[in-house]
């Protein structure tokens, strides 16, 4: 899975790119055929003007489109191979404007070959040999073709950046996902537009393609591969990856024009792009200090594609009255409360007990979180696959029954049955106490309301919570760094989205022992069930049954605490067109080259 640190909160915003972790306060889009401005999947009416979706009028060139990032989300990495700290949805939303992915996945989780560098992939029945063919139409902005040598360059960078002796700022975040890189026996370029990948052992073909091969976003070898030593090369790339002006040779629809950290990142159309060319003058990713600042920018028009935090729901009329369109948009993934079970965690010996995790889960009133805080736009999640948006990956048994409904009385009794008892209102057992610090992203009122409700309900079980707000990037950095295990207990406000290595959403990078995004969780049964989803099967039905067995166990064994699928309430100014049609919300990566702005008549 591509546990992208796309931080999660309410607008696809601070999350990740390697399965996507994210603060959903920064995202945009809905599947192509759903969630229109007037009729949404939740039944809410959110607007009457449809120009934010599409238009039958002729597109008019020009204009500046300003896209608001999630509060306090700073873009800090600009090349397609990333480390853990940079693996966010927000970063990749911009990166994919500069660089074309090898495989572009649509909102319905099918491969869009017309927008992919690859033209097709073939493989043998055993799942050990894969032939990758590139579409020769694609070129870099300097006129040179995108070839197998560019894919090989990315492959060698990933190999080196995944090694134990990789220099800072590595290692590569996707190491271990989709058999990359250690499961690959060889990679050979058969010509300028064909490569052969041979695996060391059989793999489920769809899993390897959508979790392994998808990581190989071509990078410009002739421009960047300037060292004879690969370790020097990755040190060079790691040093320049944080510099947005380093990216002068690109193959995506836009080029970087100028940027100022914590302020803005301004793109202009790549006139050499071989796909649908943008007709905008400028595309700006804009930093936002808070939801209230972003809301004010929407009202003044200085932001024309943004978001409405749920805490601002009562004020929506001030936007719709000026013609703005509001659309609820759901990414495919899950929101979680993370449990620190890393070595060195001060609470590991408590949280590694299943009954403790069960009591914590039963103390989260997800229905009230949905109705009272998120106005019905945050349906509860019962496992690693959400019910919204709907996909074929949801286990029938989980669709029928929630394993851990809200019941703090039962949670308290469960703790007492294992020897815990109240001492001064706090569950205590020997020298241990149920006292935890819960870290969460600052800057979002709805997130603050949610953690305050969680604190209150866990108090009914004798679990004492101290709330700790942190900037989203700081929160992400601490929780995903094992060496920082002593700095936190529980963390919420982040999400994992299946929008990178993870389009085939098994839990290898998430919940397997020693997974980079597993927070120290380990279980041999979980490992075996995950491994079973990675094997080839004679039929799609047999493959899905193996997946459901993994999903059911994971849902009940609680490697994390399941929260709510929070919608991004995306706001589109009335002169913005096709921003809903080409938002691709479920995967989180909009096709911004199709967005355009109608110009006032002279």
UniProtKB/TrEMBL annotation:
Record's signal peptide: 1-26
GO cellular component labels: cell envelope
Localization of this protein: Cell envelope
Compositional bias per record (Low complexity), positions renumbered to this chain: 33-57
Molecular function via GO: peptide transmembrane transporter activity
Pfam families reported in the protein's UniProt record: SBP_bac_5
Chain ranges of the Solute-binding protein family domain: 116-497
UniProt-listed GO biological process terms: peptide transport
Sorted UniProt keywords: Signal, Transport
Region (Disordered): 33-59
Family listed: Belongs to the bacterial solute-binding protein 5 family.
Full protein name: Peptide ABC transporter substrate-binding protein
Source species of the chain: Alicyclobacillus mengziensis
